[in-house]
Structures are given as structure tokens and as C-alpha cells.
Amino acid sequence: MAAIMIATAFGCVALLCVISWPFFDDYRTAVKIQSAGAAAFALYFLMLGSPTAAIACLISCSQLVISASVRDRYVVTRLYGATLILLAFLSIVTWHGIPSALAFTGSSLGTLARLQTSTTRMKGLFLVGAPFWLAHNLMVGALFALGTDLVSLASNLANLVKFFVRRGVSARASTSSSTVSITEPIAILV
To answer: What is the C-alpha separation between 71 and 97, in angstroms, rounded?
Structure first.
């Protein structure tokens, strides 16, 4: 009973992080919130007996710390590559069939997302990786994580839609303002 309560507490922290990070346009803030969520998920999956997912989350957390602290893009890219090799090795060591493959794939796509310097591209790549985590969480019975996946999908989609709508409105505004001049007469009939 205590393990379930502890797992639920870590799930709540992770859920809060997943809900909140997509609403931040500042990259460093988004990375910090994601890092806290990744650490909470690592403990959550460990409590549920899913070691590959727990390791994937710890590696995600280390990648986020790298992103927040290392300024040299070349070094960051190389360190992320090293973490992908480590993830592949540890996925084999902790292998438990299809759930391990799903956790590895979802985490690999998350790695690509975290390498982005644009939060928009980051959110898009997380959307691509989400179905793998969703399938993993269904298979291992990580219901709290499943709920978090659904919230993550909805919030990332909502923010991407907001971005593209805002981008479309500003593009239309700049197009219409550049084609009509106040000093030129506007013809009603052509």
C-alpha cells in the first residue's frame, strides 16, 4: 500500500510538470520543468517494476541537465549521442520484451526533441514519441503515466495549434499591410 502511495505521489509531480512545461516559451524554463518530471517518472516506473522505463527517464533527466548547463552545442550533441548509446546498452540489460522496445523508442525520440533549440520543434517531436510511451504504459499498467501521456498529448497539440494560428494571423496581417498603401487609391471595381 505504501509503494502505491509513493508511486502516486511521484506520478502527481510528473503530471504537474507535464501539464506546465509546454506553456513556457523560454527554453531553459521548459527544460528545468521537464527535468523534474523525468526524475519523478524514473522513481514512478521503478516503483512499478519497469526498469527500462526508469532508466530511460534517468537518462532523459541527465540530458536535460546537460542542455541546461553546457553552452557548447557541439559538446551537447556529442553528450546526447553518448547517452543514446548508454540507453541502448541499458535497455538490453533491463530488457523485458516489447515494453523495453517501446520505452527505448519513445526515449530516443525524446532525445531528438530535447536537442532542438526551438520549443515548437521540441513539442512536435515529443508528439511523435508520445504513442510509444502510451503503448508502453498500457502494456505495463502504468495508469498514472497513461493519464500523463494523454495530458501531454493534449497540451502539446494545443500549444502547437496556438503557435500556428498566431503565426498565420501575423502572416496574414503583414501580407495585407504590405499590399495596401494609404497613399494609393483602392479600386472597388476592377
So the answer is: 37
- CA–CA gap between residue 56 and residue 77 (Å, rounded): 18
Contact 17, 34 (CB under 8 A): yes
Instruction: Estimate to the nearest angstrom the gap between the alpha carbon of 85 and the chain centroid.
Output: 20
Residue bearing cell 495530458: 151
Specify the pLDDT at position 177. Answer: 52
pTM value? Answer: 0.75
Q: Residue 141: enclosing H or E segment and its boundaries? A: none
CA–CA separation, 86 vs 189, rounded Å? 68
CB 73 within 8 A of CB 47: no
How far is 78 from 15, CA to CA, in rounded Å? 30
Give the integer Cα–Cα distance in Å for 156 and 23: 9
Listed ranges 24-33, 98-107, 114-123; the one with the highest mean pLDDT: 98-107
